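hiii, so i know i said id send this last week but things got crazy w the move. better late than never?? heres the sequnce for the chain we talked about at the cafe, plus the structure i predicted for it. fair warning i was half asleep when i ran it
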Amino acid sequence: MKSITLTRFIAFIFSIVFLALLQGCTSNNSSVSKQAKVFSLTLEDSITFDRLSEVELQDYNENTGELLLHDAQTSEILIINTQGELVSSFDPFTEGPNYVSDQTYGWNFYGEDQILAYGQVHFHRLSKKGQRIQRLEYPVEVSSWWTLDYNPRMLFTFDDNNESKIVAFIPGVTGPNYKTQAFQDSVDMVYTLSFESSKSQAVFEKLEQSVYRSLGKYVDRGWPTMANFSDSRFAVTYSIDSVLYIFDAVSNELLNQIPIPRGYQPKYDYVDFGSKNVPDRSRINTRIFPMGEEIILEVSDRIPESVMTKIQQLPQWWESDELMEASRKYSDRYYLVFNQNGYLGNLNWQGTNINYHIIGSKNGFLWLQRRYEDERDYRTFLKMKITEELN
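okay and structure toks below
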């Protein structure tokens, strides 16, 4: 995890090493059941958008087919349609009546004609032209703002009896010191919020028997990663958890607990609470992508802390050959396919040159942005569908 002061650092590093991280996404791990299926991605469609500057894929509107983008160089928010035409653009980071904050942590479509911005202090409801309609304060106090590794989604929308609500993960909630058991036991970081009633509710709390509440040691802050895969149902896990949890956001009911296959479960060590030592997490759960009734869990091997510490002592280490070599040696990713009832198999990822912004959707598609090695004056977004490979 990195603080907000390193936001651009993180994006730059990921843009360099992402391709290396994707190598080895397929595994023949013998501990997985022989009944496990193998899935692959097939190209359904693509959108080409004329743009020289780098853009980040933020969301996909399942009703209109539009894509929501953030221009990392101009700071504009862009909406494009299925023909790659610009529908709207605006700058939400300039002081004025529609200013959202200096930094945002997610952008979502809200219905067919509005969008949401996850700002500092407030959640903003805007028109497609960037005009503020309403804003809601965070439901809890925060002591810090964070941009998280692997770019997980932190803001979602769902329907509750014909009312649109949001689920927000707030990582910097004020509470006990994060290197204490009290932090894991008492701090709620995920909330549902309503723009209509301004009411909020803590949801998806850590179970008493879960690893962060039962280990009795410190590994990391215990931030969740999640995805809204169908109606108000969410898949939730944590970086070192060996379980995928299925929750309903309306009732806050735990619907299922699905074990992650043993051969892909996180690998980590731990330290005593309050220790100044840094635990080594060599394999963690990083992101979840919805694809209709299927759920894709991304599991990532990591560069060991001892190796990374030496690399970070180098000048401009983020551009060093040592970082690239370590990424190739240690960094693999695995993509596991579930539904709400259990584990189905592995995704045989054969993506070539894509960047790390990946958007899943409840209508069964995955959106990827293709990355080119040379400079282009256009951007390409790929619409992918998951299919089962037949023997």
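btw The first strand starts at residue 2 and ends at 3. thought thatd interest u
miss u guys!!
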